[in-house]
Every structure is written in C-alpha cells, then in structure tokens.
C-alpha cells in the first residue's frame, strides 16, 4: 500500500498498480484498440499492460479472452494455416 493504492512489486523491482475488475476492461481496451492500439495477441497484450505499469492476478487469461472477443481482430486478422 502506498498513498491508499495497492501495488505489486514485479520481478524487475518496479511497482505495478493493481487495478480493479472495472478498470481492467478499460486498460485492456486502451492498450489493445485505443488511440495507439496495435491489435496484438493475448500474451503480448499482457506483457504490454505490465510494461505500462498495471497488474492483476489473472492478466494473461483476461488478455487472451479480450483478444478473442475483439471483432476487428477476428475479421482482419491472419488466418492460421
């Protein structure tokens, strides 16, 4: 706890802000499809969210679910062979 906010200490020693369930969807949307969004895959999205400074315990599975539900990624993404 620091100034009323909960943080998680990463492996590199950085403090990552723990976000709530409501904020998690907004963070995923902004990183994935926001103004500078790149529509990346699930694991890459979770890594980019961590580098942005946010954390929650099931980030990787939430990021994968978010990418699967992204309509633009499903329509315009590469088709696996």
Low-confidence stretches: none
Widest sheet: strand ordering: 1-2-3
Order of helices and strands: EEHHEHH
How many individual β-strands? Answer: 3
Mean pLDDT: 88
Counted by DSSP, the helix tally is 4
Helical content (DSSP H or I, runs of 4+)? 40-55%
Rg on CA atoms, Å? 14 Å
What is the strand content?
5-15%
Largest sheet: 3 strands, mixed
**End-to-end C-alpha gap:** 47 Å
* Helical/strand content category: mainly alpha
Shape: elongated
Protein name: Integrase zinc-binding domain-containing protein
Organism: Lithospermum erythrorhizon (Purple gromwell)
Domain Integrase zinc-binding: 21-75
Pfam families: Integrase_H2C2
List keywords for this structure.
81 residues, 51% helix, mainly alpha, three-stranded mixed beta sheet
Question: Could you explain how this protein is built, in words?
Answer:
InterPro entries: Integrase_H2C2. Pfam families: Integrase_H2C2. Residues 21-75 form the Integrase zinc-binding domain. The protein has 81 residues and is mainly alpha-helical. The chain is 51% helix and 11% strand. The chain has helices spanning 21-33, 42-52, 59-69, 71-76; strands spanning 7-9, 15-18, 54-55. It has a three-stranded mixed sheet with strand order 1-2-3. It starts with 6 loop residues before the first strand and ends in a 5-residue tail after the last helix.
């Amino acid at each position: 706890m620091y100034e009323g906010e909960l943080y998680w200490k990463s492996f590199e020693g950085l403090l990552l802000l723990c976000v709530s369930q409501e904020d998690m969807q907004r963070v995923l949307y902004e990183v994935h499809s926001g103004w500078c969004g790149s529509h990346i895959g699930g694991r890459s999205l979770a890594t980019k969210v961590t580098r942005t400074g946010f954390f929650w315990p099931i980030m990787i599975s939430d990021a994968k679910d978010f990418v699967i539900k992204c309509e633009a990624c499903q329509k315009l993404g590469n088709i696996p062979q």
